[in-house]
């Protein structure tokens, strides 16, 4: 992995962890967060260590691919081990199990601080287990996709199947906050109960998050890179709610939910950084659909159980743009090629956008002109940072003036 991207990704993740620890110290839960940091660091080290050692085994089993963006060059003809997201995902699950054990395990998945909160606001053992089951199920189905190369109609159904454990056991709040202008215009209250429709919303969010990362891909480092950035901003959002600066309805409940989210997201960010180190340009391994599904489901579970799903969508702005722009091809209105990648120009050694390939990667190239794969990835990740920053600022504006 290049020194610049390595330093940038590490500094971004470290900054998010630092903000989180400072908030934890302010409210007296620093020991809890330190255990999360230590186990997350171990997850990074394990992922970084095992990927190059397990990659040959996956290649031997036939899980390899060609780097189409280097077609016509020696690098484009060299088989690259893929589905290495399986290693990061497996280590992530091990870290979560160890973290659960550090919390006391057994009959509860929350701390004494969280136990003081009313039951409806706390993520208990049932929902903790359901979230873990959904992520595990999604990893299994993602690996099945890597092996079997499933059709798109099946890809859309997989997240719904994986989310079933959460949908079945979820018994938390099913209300949403109505923005102030809307409730003033309609004369309705601040909260709107959705009932069973909230379960439908959770299912749709799971489907969107998993497939949004899966279709915003195709160049070295993009899938893992965007996931690290989103995770860093999720941690920043969690930190702001662990120690909120403004008045809130239930500070303890808010804190408990976001502490749970930190437990899910911080190990994910660490394991993904370990994967990114080997997936950056030129990629020594490919992450595979396993990682994309695993990443999306982890974000969805953390947001649903942390009760910030609307904020998560604000951090998915590039993915939303890519989804809307890709929709005509995804639903079959426009013919959809198997690989909607840019064209590699062997003379200039740059990627060129293709107007008929409807995704954000090609759109950026059409707007900026040809550029190298590495520079394109850096630009797309910088756009992710800008959008996530704008999303958190918009969320802050909504809290102060709209909600």
From TrEMBL:
<keyword id="KW-0256">Endoplasmic reticulum</keyword>
<keyword id="KW-0812">Transmembrane</keyword>
<comment type="function">
    <text>UDP-N-acetylglucosamine--dolichyl-phosphate N-acetylglucosaminephosphotransferase that operates in the biosynthetic pathway of dolichol-linked oligosaccharides, the glycan precursors employed in protein asparagine (N)-glycosylation. The assembly of dolichol-linked oligosaccharides begins on the cytosolic side of the endoplasmic reticulum membrane and finishes in its lumen. The sequential addition of sugars to dolichol pyrophosphate produces dolichol-linked oligosaccharides containing fourteen sugars, including two GlcNAcs, nine mannoses and three glucoses.</text>
</comment>
<dbReference type="InterPro" id="IPR033895">
    <property type="entry name" value="GPT"/>
</dbReference>
<feature type="transmembrane region" description="Helical">
    <location>
        <begin position="312"/>
        <end position="334"/>
    </location>
</feature>
<keyword id="KW-1133">Transmembrane helix</keyword>
<keyword id="KW-0479">Metal-binding</keyword>
<protein>
    <recommendedName>
        <fullName>UDP-N-acetylglucosamine--dolichyl-phosphate N-acetylglucosaminephosphotransferase</fullName>
        <ecNumber>2.7.8.15</ecNumber>
    </recommendedName>
</protein>
<dbReference type="GO" id="GO:0003975">
    <property type="term" value="F:UDP-N-acetylglucosamine-dolichyl-phosphate N-acetylglucosaminephosphotransferase activity"/>
</dbReference>
<keyword id="KW-0460">Magnesium</keyword>
<feature type="transmembrane region" description="Helical">
    <location>
        <begin position="224"/>
        <end position="240"/>
    </location>
</feature>
<feature type="transmembrane region" description="Helical">
    <location>
        <begin position="83"/>
        <end position="102"/>
    </location>
</feature>
<dbReference type="GO" id="GO:0016757">
    <property type="term" value="F:glycosyltransferase activity"/>
</dbReference>
<feature type="transmembrane region" description="Helical">
    <location>
        <begin position="260"/>
        <end position="277"/>
    </location>
</feature>
<comment type="similarity">
    <text>Belongs to the glycosyltransferase 4 family.</text>
</comment>
<dbReference type="Pfam" id="PF00953">
    <property type="entry name" value="Glycos_transf_4"/>
</dbReference>
<comment type="pathway">
    <text>Protein modification; protein glycosylation.</text>
</comment>
<feature type="transmembrane region" description="Helical">
    <location>
        <begin position="122"/>
        <end position="144"/>
    </location>
</feature>
<dbReference type="InterPro" id="IPR000715">
    <property type="entry name" value="Glycosyl_transferase_4"/>
</dbReference>
<feature type="transmembrane region" description="Helical">
    <location>
        <begin position="378"/>
        <end position="398"/>
    </location>
</feature>
<dbReference type="GO" id="GO:0006488">
    <property type="term" value="P:dolichol-linked oligosaccharide biosynthetic process"/>
</dbReference>
<feature type="transmembrane region" description="Helical">
    <location>
        <begin position="284"/>
        <end position="306"/>
    </location>
</feature>
<keyword id="KW-0808">Transferase</keyword>
<keyword id="KW-0472">Membrane</keyword>
<dbReference type="GO" id="GO:0046872">
    <property type="term" value="F:metal ion binding"/>
</dbReference>
<keyword id="KW-0328">Glycosyltransferase</keyword>
<feature type="transmembrane region" description="Helical">
    <location>
        <begin position="156"/>
        <end position="178"/>
    </location>
</feature>
<dbReference type="GO" id="GO:0005789">
    <property type="term" value="C:endoplasmic reticulum membrane"/>
</dbReference>
